[in-house]
Each structure stands twice: as C-alpha cells, then as structure tokens.
Amino acid sequence: MSRLEMRKPVSELSPTPDDLMELVAEEYPAVEPAPVRAKPVYWLFAPLAAVAALVFPRRLGPHLAASGWLAAYFVHFVSVLVVIVTLAILVMFAHMQSSDIAPSIPSTGALVRIALAWTVLLGVSIADTGAIPHVGVGVALFEGALCLVAMALMPLLAAGESRGRLYGRCIRLLLWSTATLVMPTILFSLTLIVMGDRNTTVPYTVVAALAGLAYGASVLLRLGSRYGGKPTGPGFEPRALHCEDCHYNLTRQRRDARCPECGRPVVFSLPERREMPPFAAARSTWGRLRTFLPTLWASLFAKEFARRLAVHRGRAEARRFAVWVCTLIGLASAVTCCIWTIVMLTVGEHRWSHDAEFELLPISVPGYVSDLIVVPIAWGLGNALAVFAVTMLAAWLASWLGLRQPARRGLVVCYASGWMIIPSILSALAGLALWLVMEVWNPTSAIRFPVVGLVDVAVIIAMCIVAVPVAGLLLWFGHIWRMLHATRYANA
User: Fold this and answer.
1) Does pTM top 0.85 for this prediction?
2) CA atoms of 309 and 316, how far apart (whole Å)
3) Are the C-beta atoms of residues 388 and 330 closer than 8 Å to each other?
4) Are 66 and 229 in contact, with CB atoms under 8 Å apart?
5) Is 159 a domain residue?
6) How far apart are CA 366 and CA 199, in angstroms?
C-alpha cells in the first residue's frame, strides 16, 4: 500500500465489477503461516545451544522453544551459577582492595577455583547465619518475577497458538534467555575491577549493565520471532468472514451487498482491504529507513491507518517498528543529555566571585569523557529501555493480562508506540525549562529568588515534569483504545 492510498478514505477504494458479482466464501484460510519444523535440543547440549543462540537467536529460537523443560531449567541454573561465581570474583577483588592488598590477575584455572571457593564460603556463611529462609524467599521472588515477565511477553510473542502453549513457550524462552545475563555481569565486574574506586566508575558500570539488558531484550524478541510448535490454536483454524462493524457472519453474501445487521458494505470487510504498513512491507534496511517516518506519521495522525491495518500478519515487523521507536527516543535523549551537559559545563560549573566575574572550575579529561559521552549513552539506553518496558506493559494490560487476543492487541500497541515520542519531548523541554529558571535567577550556589513569584514558576514547571508524562500516557492509552476499537473485528 502506498502512502497516498493510506490517506484515502475507505469509500474511495472500490473493487472491480467482476469481483462484486462473487459471493463471500464459506471459509477463509488460517491467518497464521505453517510453523517452522523444530528439533528439540537435548539437555546435555543445552548450554552450547544457549551460547549459539546469543549469536543466532532468530534461527535457533523455534528449536529452543520446542525443547523440554529440563533443558530450559538446566540453562537457567547454569547461567545463574555463572553470574554468582562472577559476582564472587568481584567481591574477592573488592576485599583485596579494601585490605590494601595489591590484586594481581591469576590464571584462568586459579581464578575459577578461587571463585568457587568464595562461593562455597558464601554458602557456608549463609547457612551459619540462618539466612537460608531469606535466600529461599529471594529465589521464589525471582522465579515469580520471571513468571510475570513471561505473561507480559505473551502479546509480543504470540503466534496464533492457544493461551496455554503461548505461556509455556514464553517461559521456556525466558529461561533460555537468562544466558544473556552472563555477559553484562562480566562487563560490570570487569569495569569495577579495572576502574577501581575512581569517581568515573559509576557511569561506565551503568552503561555496561544497560547495554547488556538491551542486548538481552533484543535476543529474547528474536528468539520468539518464529513459531515452531504444533499448529493448534485459533490462528491455525479456518475462519468465516464477519462484518468489521458488528461481527455479523457474511458467509454466502454478495460482495456488492450490505451487511444485513448494520448496513456496512460487504466489500469494506474483505481481508484484502487490509494491508501491512509500508515499514512492514519493506524487505531491506534501506527500505525500512525510507518508510519509518511515513509509517510513524500515519500511525499518529492518519484516521484510516487502523481501518486499513492488517493485524493478523507482520507481527515481527510490528515489534521491529516498536524497537525502532524506542531507539529513536533513546538517541534523542542521549543528544539532549549531551547538549544539556555542555551547557552545564560552560555555565553551571562557574562560580560567582565577589568581583562579579565567572571562574571556571577545573575538570579533568576523564571527567569530560564521562560527562559528554558515557553519561549521555547511559541516559539514552535507560530511556529506550524504559519506553520499551512501558510498551510491553501497555500491551499486557490491553490484552487483559495476555488472555484476550494477545496477538492482535500486541501488534496494535506496537504500532501505537510512536505516541511515546510526544511525552518524551515535552518532558525534556519541561526539565530544560526548570533548569533554566533555576540557573538564570540563581547564579550562585546559594538559593536566591530576586524576582517575585519565581518560586511559584519553579514549582509549576517541576509539576509539569510529572504532569506532562502522565498526561501523555493517558492520551496514548486513548490512542491505543481507538486503534483497538477499529481493529476489533478485523478479518486480516
């Protein structure tokens, strides 16, 4: 579908006269493609398969999801154990530094043995202090959180199967994806060990942790991009054509007729009237780059976008569109933070002297690198992950906790995610306005408000920082509801 066709009202798009003489078929084929032929992974080879899945997640995803629970929990246990051993190494180096012992990097074998010894000592200390019940509660909470995250993933990873199969597949993929926690933990530990107790350690460790989480989320989405289970579920069953306004069964009706229930033309409910957006129809990265902004604009402002949107196919492209929106917000946040930091370094780091002159405070080169590069990267990654988490939560709530049409509702929320750009921009502008008010009228470290009513202005702007995102989220939920209402009886 071209961009011009997407802007046209439905009444201007009519089929040929020959098509109008035909009758509506009794059954239409299933909306889901045939599942991928999956080969389960034996549990002894599960760790190797998990490592390979970090590089080829989309190819190995169906095979991992089709594997048994033993393989998934085995990978989960090994991954958590490696994370604990890595943190034990970090604690060991921190203890050596606090004891004024010059830490030297031992060999790999010695490092593993020392880490295992520290892990055993940690377990013995936990047993001696009677903290085993607390550890058990922590493990139970962690596993319960994984179950909740699996439920939130249902709208994003739905492939037309039944709810029980979908939930089981999400849990297994989530257990497999815990292998992605190993790399950010190692990067986090290496950053702390190499940087030591420097003041610039925190931004680097935050970037390492956020980058690991972002990569883990990307791997998880690509693991579930293809379905390799049994073709059982509502998406793999033939279906009848229903009116997209009142859900009346239009079987054996003439295509030039109207719905006997609501009077809507039958031709406006045909499956071929709905098509994927230009971004989803593109088959190359360059094509997606050219069609991303037009699709984003149409999803925000085109009235006929939801009425022409195909909601039963192209779910992987819809998830990619949501990821691109989150990436765009993250890049904008990083650039804004960098500009803000430059202003702070040139203005905010001056102090007001008694001679009414500005004096620049000394800042080291590592401090400049941390402030101008590392901090904006951390801010951008954090905002991108936060927007993705909000999108996933909105899809979960819109699908009634993953129980009502998770595939359709998840796709609609993904295309509605572009609305998050508006509150993000407004929040950044409100924060910048607050800082400008505090900086212009308060040049010294002491808090002074020489202008009457400045306190009220600062309080109002501070409230806007909270009110603007909340109002934006409420408007976004209204936008999602309108799109869900327009696609509630979609036939394609």
Assistant:
1) no
2) 15
3) no
4) yes
5) yes
6) 9
Tokens of 344: 């702070």
Which tokens sit at 1?
């579908």
Tokens of 408: 């359709």
Contacts of 70 (CB under 8 A, 6+ apart): 43
Q: Indicate if 262 and 310 belong to the same structural domain.
A: no
49 neighbors 41 (Cβ within 8 angstroms): yes
Q: Domain of residue 393: give its range.
A: 275-486
Q: Do residues 249 and 281 share a domain?
A: no
The answer to whether residues 330 and 372 belong to one domain is yes
- Taking CA atoms, 115 is separated from 84, 87, 88, 189, 194, in Å, by 9, 9, 6, 13, 18
Among 219, 251, 273, the domain-final residue is 273
Contact between 490 and 269 under an 8 Å Cβ cutoff? The reply is no
Q: Judge if 167 and 242 occupy the same domain.
A: no
Helices (H), 225-353: 278-281, 285-301, 305-308, 315-343
pLDDT in tens, 254-283: 888 898 888 888 988 888 889 999 999 998
Residue 226 near residue 169 (C-beta atoms within 8 A): no
Q: What percent of the chain has pLDDT over 70?
A: 71
Pairing relationship of beta strands 358-360 and 350-352 according to DSSP bridges: antiparallel
For residues 153 and 258, membership in a common domain is answered with no
Provide the number of structural domains found in the chain.
3
d(CA 49, CA 41): 8
Tell me: the pLDDT tens digits for 365-382?
A: 455 556 678 888 888 898
Residue 253 and residue 286 in one domain: no
DSSP string, 421-443: HHHHHHHHHHHHHHHHHHHHS--
If asked whether residues 299 and 383 sit together in one domain, one would say yes
